Structures are given as C-alpha cells and as structure tokens.
Amino acid sequence: MKKITTLLLLITTPFLFSQIKGTVTNNKNKPLSFVSIYLENSITGTTTNDSGNYELTFTKKGKHTIVYQILGYKTVKKTVDISSFPVNVNIVLFEEEVTLDEVLISSNENVANKIIRKVIANKNKNTDKFAQYTADFYSRGLFKVKNLPKKFLGQDIGDMGGGLDSTRTGIVYLSETISSISYQKKPKKFKEYIIASKVSGEDNGISFNQADEVDFNLYENSFNLADAEMISPIANSAFSYYNYKLAGTFYDKNGRLISKIKLLPKRKNDRVFSGFIYIVEDDWAIYGADINITGAQISMPMIDSLQLKQNYNFSPKNNAWVLITQTIDFKAGMFGFNFNGRFSAAYTNYNFLPNFTDKTFGNEILSFAKNATEKDSLYWTKIRPVTLTTEEVADYKLKDSIKTIRKSKKYLDSVDTKQNKFGLLDIVTGYSYDNTYKKWGLSFSSPIEYLNFNTVQGWNSSVGLQYYKSVNKKGERFNIGTKFNYGLSDKKLRPTGYFSYKWNNTTKPILNISGGVTTTQFNEKQPISKLWNTISSVLFERNYLKIYEKSFAKISFSQEIKNGIHLFTSLEYADRKPLFNTTDYVMFPQDDINYTSNNPQDPANFTSSFTPHKMWSFRLGTAINFGQKYVSYPNGKYNVRNNKYPSLFIGYNKNFGASNTQLSSDIIYTQLKQKIAFGNWGEFKYKAQGGLFLEQKDISFIDYVHFNGNRLLVAPKDDYLNNFYMLPYYQLSTNDKYGELHGEYNFKGALLSKIPLLNKLNFHLVTGAKGLFTAGNKPYTEFAVGLDNIGIGKWRFLRVDFARSNFNGNNENRVLFGIKL
After folding, report:
1. Euclidean distance between CA atoms 144 and 506, whole angstroms
2. Contact of 260 with 247, CB cutoff 8 Å
3. What whole-number distance in Å separates Cα of residue 138 and Cα of residue 179?
4. Is the pLDDT of residue 644 over 80?
5. How far apart are CA 412 and CA 393, in angstroms?
6. Cα 59 off chain centre by
7. Using CB atoms within 10 A of its CB, is residue 796 exposed (0-12), middle (13-18) or buried (19+)?
8. Do 706 and 525 contact (CB within 8 A), yes or no?
9. Total Cβ atoms within 10 A of residue 272
10. C-alpha distances in angstroms, 332 versus 146, 292, 295, 338, 407?
11. 426: which DSSP letter?
12. Vertex 819, ends 341 and 431: CA angle to 5°?
C-alpha cells in the first residue's frame, strides 16, 4: 500500500503543484534562461531554467496577468483566464529596442555621467526603502567539464562522480539550496536559515551556493567576488575607475524610462567591471546589470571570465526596486581542465516590515533545519521554484542510482582492492591501504619524501607507519603513528610515536600525545626548512640548520571554549642533549667557505655547546578572534573570521624541574594580527608581537625567544609576516623583553595599472616593513619593495622583493624570490 501511495503521489505531483507552465524563447526560437515570471503587482514568482522552461505555482482560478521579464528583452504581459489546471502558456520575447535621443547625442555634457552621479546621490534613499527585510532564497549551482584528462601528474582523476560521457564531458557538480534570509542595513547584519539543501550524488547535501556567498550588492562601494574586493560602478569613488557612455534608452512595462549605460574601465587590470548597468529615470535606482570581469583582474589566472547578471523588479509595497534574480556564469581552465558553470539565484516573498528583535541576529550567520540535507525527490518536486532541465534531471537520476551502488560495501571494497594494490615501487615512494566502507586506513610514509642532509646526521631520512579511524560524521576520529629517523653519518636511529583524538567538529576538542627521541631546531618555530638547508649545505656549504636532541614525552589539548575563544595547553618532559657536526660533505667545495659548527651562539666552536639537562615545560594560551561569526553545518561548526577586528593571542610558558634552578623560566607573550582590505587599492596586513621574561636568569639558549630569520635568497614562507627578509637566524635571540612588528601592503595592481606599458604586465606592487626590538640592542629594521603576480598568462606564481636592513648603522641589501602556491 505504501509503495502504491508513493507512486500515485509521484504521478500526480506535477499536476498538483505545476499550475501554469510553459517555455519562453526569443524570436529566433532560442530558449531564454532565468526569465522572471510573476503575477502583476507582485514580486513573487518563478524563473525559467536553462532550457527556457518554467512552472508558476498558485491555486486561484480566474483572470490573471502574468509578467515575463528579462534584461535585454521587451517585457511581456500575458492575461490568462484560468478555469482549470494545469495551463500551458508559451511566450516569445523580442529584444529591447534601445534608442538614442538626438537631443542626448548632441548634448555637450556626458549624459551617462549625469545619470551615474544622480544614482550615487540617491543610493542611501533607495536602499533605505529595503533597510531590513526577510525573503525566500533559492539557488542552483552547476559545474561542467569538457574533455577532462584521465590522469593528472600520473594520478587517475576518476569519473568525477559518474556524470561524464565517453568524451569525459558532463556535469561534475549540481546542487540546490532553499533558505530563508534576514537582512538589516544598519548596523549591517545578515542571517540565513537553510531549509533544504541537495547535492547530486552525495549524502550530506551541503551545497556551496549560500545566500551570503552571492550577496553582490552594487549599492555598496565595494563587495567581495571570488575573493577579490570589486569596485561597484556606482561606488562613491566610481569616477576614479570608470568612464561611462549612454548606450540608449527604452521604456519598461509601466512606462518608466530606463537608461542603458556602458561601463568603460579606465585601466584594464583594475578590479572593476565591464558591461552594462541599467538605471531607472527619476528613481535613479538599478533596473538591472550585465557585467563581467576577467581572471587577471581578480588575480585568479585559472578563470577566463566571470559574468554577473542581476534583474530588479519594482515593489509597490515600499516603492523600491529590489533584486529578484541573479546569475553568475564563469569559464575557467588550467592544466588541461576546462570548466564552465553557473550559480543562479532567485529572491521571493520579500517582507519589508519584519519583526526583528535583539535575538534575531547573532554570531551565527548560517544554520540548517533538521534533516535539511535529507529531503527526498518528492519534497523537491513540490518546493523547487525553478524547474530542472532535462540534463539536470538525468544527472540527479544517474548519480542518485550510482550513489546507492557506490555506498555499498561490495563497491567500496572493489575500489579499495584496486587502489590498495601494492607495487615494488611503493617501498620507496610510500604506500596506503584504505578501508573506505569502515572508514579506516593505514599508510607507510616514503623515505624519499623525508630525505635530507645536515652536518650533524649527514644524509638522513625517516620511515613511518600511520593508522587513522573516522568514527562518525560529526568529526570524531583518531590517528596513531610512529616514525623512525636514521642518519648515515651519526649512525643513530631515533624513533618517535604519536596519538591524536578529536571528538567533534563543533568545539573541536583535540588531544595529542607524543614521545620518543628526535632532533629539533633551537628555534622551535622551525624557520629553516630541511629542503632548503639541504640545498644550501650540499651545493653551497652553508649549514644554517642548528639542532639538538631531545628524548621527550608530551601531552597537549586544545578546544574552542566559546565562540571566538580557543584554548591551548600542553605539558612536556624532555631530556635535552647537544649535538655536533659529524660530516663536512659538500658537492662543490669552495676554498673560502667552510661549514660552521652546530652551536648557534658560537659558530666557530666545534667542541662544546650547552650543558645537557632535563626540563618540564608547561604552556597555556588563548586565541581570541574578535567579532567572529560562524556557520552551523549538520556535521559541525565552522568559524568565519571578521577582518574588521584583529585577532589576539595571549600565552604563558613555564620551564621548570631542572636540577639547576637557574634554568627555570617564566615568559608571557602576546600577538596581534589583522588583514585590512582597501577595495581596489589592495590590502594591508600586519602582525605585532612581544613578550617578557618575569625574571632575568642565565637560562638555556634553547629557552630563549628566537626570531624567524632568513639567510637564503628565497622566501621561506608563503606568509611574509612570519619571517624577516635577511635577519641572521640567532643573532638577536633574547632572554629579556622584546617586540616584533611586521607589515605589508599589496597594492594589487592599483598603482602599476596606471602606468602605460607596465599596466599590460598585470604585476602587483608590494611594500613591506619589519622591526625587531630587544632589550640591550638597537632596533633592527627592514624595508622592502617588490613585485607580485609575476608570470605569463595564467602562470603567475613568482614574487621578487628587494629588501634593505639596518642594524647598528650597518646596511645590507638582498633580492629574494618567492613562489606562490
């Protein structure tokens, strides 16, 4: 009986809920997608899909006037007399006839400039009309790939979920979201409650297409699009970035004059749009937008182009023009991958008089209804405001059937059997064994991956064994592993092991236990990578890496104790021993250069270092992200940093338990950092940190505060705020008070784009300044200027800086090369 009832519902659902349906085409019989369709004197309705099909749901019979509207075409009003449902109405739209008045053509004043100035002057008045509202939001995301390679860097790519045809072309991502949104202008607040979310071929159904991610408000001076701060064509400072030209005028369905204005960027690579914006005469409000950018403009080389279309409608309730539909189309490609896609959105059921209270908004900006990701096809057929295309229906059907198969133990075991196949080469490259169905895996790390050289161990490497187990979808999992390191020159084996357990993805409590025998840098922040030390040692006889040995046992715990406040604590016992050079191997010896000792305080002392000792170390710290927002997914909480405020870290370290009490120490320290966006003028980042020892003692050099220097010609980190450009690694280490400051301004093309010829290169000017202040020493300073985004076409991974330091009146210059990944 239950199966029969379900079948009847599936058969009758289209007739119950699809009251008026049809197809919208242009006069060339080409289907028009995302045409707005609604009852006259209303802003609630539906839109056509990519095939031009639509279904408008309502139950009242009689005469109704239906409006069909899309940017670039004449609006059509169709009156239908409904006596029974369903009703089929097909519509043909003709392109809008845009004309230029002779008076406007002969005018000495740029009419487009005059119109834009009036729009800017009326922005607050227009946006005050919808200063707060609630609305229903629907979005669909679609990614397609064409001629996808079978392998990348020797690795099988797979079938991307099963939606590819024989040419490896097809849909690789399809999703839908239905939610309710709440908005407030002053102070600006936004909240989304997802009612239903669906991803083709997936169980969790958590889609990317969320309302806040596509909130591209042209009334704002700037807004974030694809991680780039774009300058609106009606920003207060828009005339510094845009030229405008009146392309023509036409009248809308209610006789209002609409001006079509062409956007002409003053500089090619500024973060501005090309295309058209449509303005309503007298109201000086946005009627629509059809604008685009390139990947070069937003520093995302893999994107070829991105097009944003917005359609607005007049709301009689508050005499305002409000956004009703939006599409984002993109083309991208790199490394043989060619993608295109669309994110489309529709806003309906606006309520401009919501009953907001103090509890309406908070730090939670997104949440899911219970079982929002588990709605069945019957539910979606009933509630979906935009019908699926034939291709989308086929993708859902195919991937849902595949999903059932691919979740089965038999299928997962068969895939694992293939991928777990062991080869002789795996002995040196590493090997992994996974049981996907039971969610556990075992891996053997490659000795090639960890191969490196230092003057203490000589050539050395590690092999390891790791096991993981995922317990549930809420994020509970654990890892356990061991690693064995062996040096060919010092002929010593050093084993270590660890255990890690995470309880959930909400507060993220994580317990780590580790121990063994290892080598570690005197600077625990590990500023010198083993790779670069190997290169500088073996090729150039410069051994910057300074290490000591410790036998240790450590336990640490971290957890978010309140939104925006994260607690860290650890306790370690270590037996510390000095190490000495055991090899002077170099591939290309030089007469005037010799290796230094492993003593960071006295590079010429090859026979002594610090006194061996045992030490307990206790640490307690808290990270505070002021104004932090968060989203609540079904499987956990994910934080969203608020860049309007800095992030603060406060810590305390205590070393104790040594036989020599002089080695005990206490230090408190703090760090403040922030990234500030300046729209088309780029971004500024800074990090300030400092601390002090509570008592002055002759402690072990290991427990000094060490600073991340650099003596290489390459930038050791992607984040330039973590290191100095050329500070010697241990020159200014201190057991006293200190302060450290790093700042960097990346103009993102704002300056170089204004210089002829240089603007064609699309390089980004970067400036930086750094300072280090330690007790008993004069300040150490560095200043730098560089070029980022260097490359050709889509290959833009290089950065070059010229830096100059000053310490005790001595200057040093250096050129550094950095690779962006």
Report:
1. 33
2. yes
3. 7
4. yes
5. 26
6. 44
7. buried
8. yes
9. 24
10. 11, 14, 9, 6, 31
11. H
12. 75
DSSP bridge pairs for 368: 194
**pLDDT tens digits for range 570-608:** 999 999 999 999 999 999 888 788 999 999 999 999 998
In sign, the C-alpha dihedral spanning 598, 604, 610, 616 is negative
- CA 65/CA 76 separation, integer angstroms: 10
The span from the CA of 312 to the CA of 70, in Å, is: 9
In contact, 599 and 609? CB cutoff 8 Å? yes
Please answer whether residues 218 and 233 qualify as being in contact, where contact means their C-beta atoms are separated by less than 8 angstroms: yes
Here the tokens at position 641 are 């940093």
Q: Report the C-alpha dihedral over residues 105, 109, 115, 121, rounded to 10 degrees.
A: -170
Phi, psi of 572 (to 5 degrees): -135, 140
* pLDDT at residue 253 greater than cutoff 60: yes
2 confidence band (pLDDT: 50, 70, 90): very low
pLDDT digits (tens, 9 = 90+) for 767-794: 999 999 999 999 999 999 999 988 887 7
Contact partners, residue 241, CB within 8 Å, separation at least 6: 231, 235, 265, 266, 267, 270, 272, 680
How far is it, in rounded angstroms, from Cα 589 to Cα 230?
Answer: 53
Q: 359, exposed or middle or buried, with CB in 10 Å at 0-12, 13-18, 19+? A: exposed
Enumerate the β-bridge partners of residue 619.
570, 653
SS3 564: coil
Burial class (CB in 10 A: 0-12, 13-18, 19+), 525: exposed
The one-letter amino acid at 587 = M
Helices H / strands E in the chain, number of each? 9, 43
Q: Which residues of 137-152 are buried (b: 16+ CB within 10 A; e: fewer)?
A: bbbbbbbbbeebeeee
* Residue type at 218 in one-letter notation: L
Answer yes or no: are the C-beta atoms of 47 and 54 closer than 8 Å. yes
DSSP 8-state assignment for residue 95: B
> 102: Cβ–Cβ under 8 A, 6 or more apart, which residues?
none
Q: Work out whether strand 170-184 and strand 189-199 pair parallel, antiparallel, or are unpaired.
A: antiparallel
Task: Give the helix ranges, DSSP H, for 500-571.
Answer: 530-540
Q: For residue 158, how many C-alpha atoms fall within 13 Å in the half-sphere facing its CB?
A: 8
- 106-165 pLDDT, tens per residue? 566 789 999 999 999 999 999 999 999 999 999 999 988 888 887 776 667 777 777 787
Task: Name which residue leads in pLDDT, 205 or 374.
Answer: 374
Distances (CA, A) of 728 to 70, 527, 708: 64, 11, 9
In degrees and rounded to multiples of 5, residue 221 shows phi and psi of -65, -35
CB count in 10 Å sphere of residue 25? 17
In angstroms, rounded to a whole number, what is the distance separating the alpha carbons of residues 738 and 689?
8
